[in-house]
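Bit of a strange request maybe. I'm writing a small parser for structure token strings and I need a real example to test against, not something I typed by hand. Could someone generate the tokens for this chain?
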Amino acid sequence: MTSRPPAGPIPPEEATASSASPDAQLGAREPIWPQPQPFTANLLKRFSRGLGSWFGLLNEWDFRIGIGSTNVLGLEMVLVNRPDLVRQVLVEEPEAFPKHPYTQWILEPLIGQGLFAVNGAEWQRQRRLVDQALQVTQLRRVFPLMQGAVQTMLERLENQGSAASPRPAPGLGAGQADLTDQAGQAGQAGQAGQGKEADLCFDAQEAMSLVTADVILRTILSRPIDPCEARTIFAAFARYQRRASLVMVLRFLRLPKPWLQRLLGADAGLIRSWIAAAIIERSRSQPGLATGTNPVAGHQDLLAALERAQEPPNPPPSRGPAQAAEGPAEPPDDPQAGMAESSGGFSQDELVDQVCVLFLAGHETSASALAMACYLLARYPEAQARFAREIGQVRGGSPSPESAPSPHRPLDYEDLRSLPYGAALLQETLRLYPPLSFFIRESQAASQLGESRCPMGALLAISPWVIQRHEQHWSEPNHFRPERFLADQASDGDKQWARDAYLPFGLGPRKCPGAAFALQEALLVLAELVSRYELLSEPGQEPELVGNLTLRSRNGVPLRLRRRP
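Reply from user aminoacidic:
Good idea to test on real output. This should exercise your parser:
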């Protein structure tokens, strides 16, 4: 992304980098990732690289420098990698660096004026209401809905061995294969040796797209997703993602905003219409609860929580940098707190916007992370075996009164708190493959970032993809080492960079409000899948990763599943 590499030699790696992995086998094999391009000062060449994937905008210098800049037709673009400067932008001075208008208008056709597309006082109001809906107590309430979606996924896989279906054609992305067939079969039965159960062909990207969409629809609207509607919606999402990546690059080149937004409108309109119809259907099944009504009555989904969320008449003041560093404030455990004296919540139109936000964030990003977690577990069988043993130990115990020890019982809410290695696997997956590759901000006034001058109106790019693979931060940054996130195995360097150079959900007051939801969902899906199946690599096939709105693979994530004894 940077056009001007720094003068002089590159500084040596800092001594704070983490030590070698306890598991030498994991550190010895580097997983797939799009290699950065050689540096070129040719603007046209750089932007042509980025038309199909934002990764094409990056060059090898971007993974070495602390801050760099380039000017594109009068727009100053600044790549910020240094952790202290990232903290300045996202945590200490967020009002001086709000979301860039490019983010807002590229998402507006899909999410309207939802949480991700607004700044200032309106963002603060929406964030307070959404935080109420996503508080920890609500995660426990929706856990049975998550379990239902995961059990449906497992049933699809159980039915797969009895009937084979055509394998998705190579090169098809999310939403382009026939998900109607895949929902019933989840792939094709592979060849098996005599007396052995057949391996199952398994596109992790397609399967994770379906289960995460089912999770988010059940938890928001209390109904499962239909495979036929899934096929239509996934195809629209895939087209929107590809076009969003293209129009963002074209907007840098000053093409007119209305013309570019029209390219996104058709697919966004289809998705919004589907979500609006689903909300109406859900509301007709049971009218919304009046203010002050017992919140445990009726639906126990996130739409009900959003409907109940109320803005207090005197909202709390903005939090300082020290508080903002930890993300959003924790709402009160009592969902009715403040309802007697409230100044209103979301309107019906705003509810559609917020559900679109939750569906985009809860479906697309979670599917991306889970697909890559499946890829990593298949590539590193020793890590997969360790995770499977951990799950077996949890199932053999009884962490909660409602769970009896059994090797086959569904995992419950408390079980997930007893899977530290599983959580570390997910954290390392999110470090290597953050679903959101870039956050962009706008400098509201001329400012200083370290030794660099940042002009008013500059576009600041903060990339989890770059920062979490930066040569000056993590040791062996492109290697898979879950131990970086285990308290008893992480080095001091690991712990430092986990604090300072790890931001898959963002940082500060705009940190993703659904982070806890996403981690709970991902760990449940992955643990139930690994406890029943061994994930195996498909020889000769690797994901072809592209960076659009979220990280995806052009050719899916082809794997095989083998039933565990």
